[in-house]
């Protein structure tokens, strides 16, 4: 009996090791993330963000997956007209005071099923930069519809560079 228990524990430990290795190997594609941030960043302050728009475009024209920082009216109008041409966003706040705020937008890939989200989970200000962390909190369901999640927020204006950090694991479509 003791041998069976020991063998089961060893098999379970091996299974956990393999699972951990697989999870570490399938993280964000480094080409998708503009920078790789060190794990030992000094503590920063949370940046207050205000939701501008969030949702899913269904059967979209496959707007490219992207992270965007918008700092002027003309950039905002160009971005809005590009994304809104085939995917109306009725709740989009158009009048942004760019002397007070800047826009952060995260647009995910086009998924072959519904139930996806893209979520800005944290925006942290450090001495020399602002880090926007995002992930997929909802990772699909069995709905038969193309979907492309997006989130757009505004934050106080800053001259600091903005870096994006993806915490999404590559999750297989269901």
Give your account of this protein's structure.
It is a single chain. The chain has helices at residues 2-25, 73-84; strands at 45-46, 50-58, 66-70, 101-107, 119-125, 129-135, 147-156, 161-166. The protein has two helices and eight strands. It has one domain. The chain is an alpha+beta fold and 174 residues long. The chain has a four-stranded mixed β-sheet with strand order 1-5-6-8, with no helix packed on it. It starts with a helix and ends in an 8-residue tail after the last strand.
Task: Please give the structural blueprint.
Layout: H1 2-25, E1 45-46, E2 50-58, E3 66-70, H2 73-84, E4 101-107, E5 119-125, E6 129-135, E7 147-156, E8 161-166
Parallel strand pairs: 6-8
Antiparallel strand pairs: 1-5, 2-7, 3-4, 4-7, 5-6
Q: Gist?
A:
By secondary structure, this protein is of the alpha+beta class. Helices cover 21% and strands 30% of the residues. The protein starts with a helix and ends in an 8-residue tail after the last strand.
Round the Cα radius of gyration to an integer and report it. 20 Å
Instruction: Give me the count of strands.
Output: 8
For the largest sheet, list the strands in their spatial order. Answer: 1-5-6-8
**Poorly predicted segments:** 5-37
Tell me the major beta sheet: 4 strands, mixed
Order of helices and strands: HEEEHEEEEE
Count up the helices: 2
Distance between the termini: 40 Å
- Number of self-contained structural domains: 1
Structural class: alpha+beta
């Amino acid at each position: 009996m003791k041998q069976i228990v020991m063998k089961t524990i060893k098999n379970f430990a091996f299974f956990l090791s393999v699972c951990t290795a697989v999870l570490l190997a399938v993280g964000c594609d480094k080409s998708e993330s503009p920078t790789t941030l060190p794990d030992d960043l000094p503590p920063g302050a949370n940046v207050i963000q205000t939701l501008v728009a969030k949702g899913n475009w269904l059967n979209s024209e496959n707007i490219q997956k992207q992270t965007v920082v918008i700092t002027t009216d003309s950039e905002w109008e160009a971005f809005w007209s590009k994304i809104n041409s085939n995917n109306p966003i009725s709740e989009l706040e158009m009048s942004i005071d760019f002397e007070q705020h800047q826009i952060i937008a995260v647009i995910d890939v086009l998924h072959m099923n519904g139930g996806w989200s893209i979520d800005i989970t944290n925006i942290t200000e450090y001495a020399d930069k602002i880090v926007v962390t995002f992930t997929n909190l909802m990772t699909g369901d069995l709905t038969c519809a193309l979907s492309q999640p997006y989130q757009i927020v505004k934050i106080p204006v800053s001259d600091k560079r903005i870096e994006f950090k993806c915490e999404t694991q590559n999750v297989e479509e269901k």
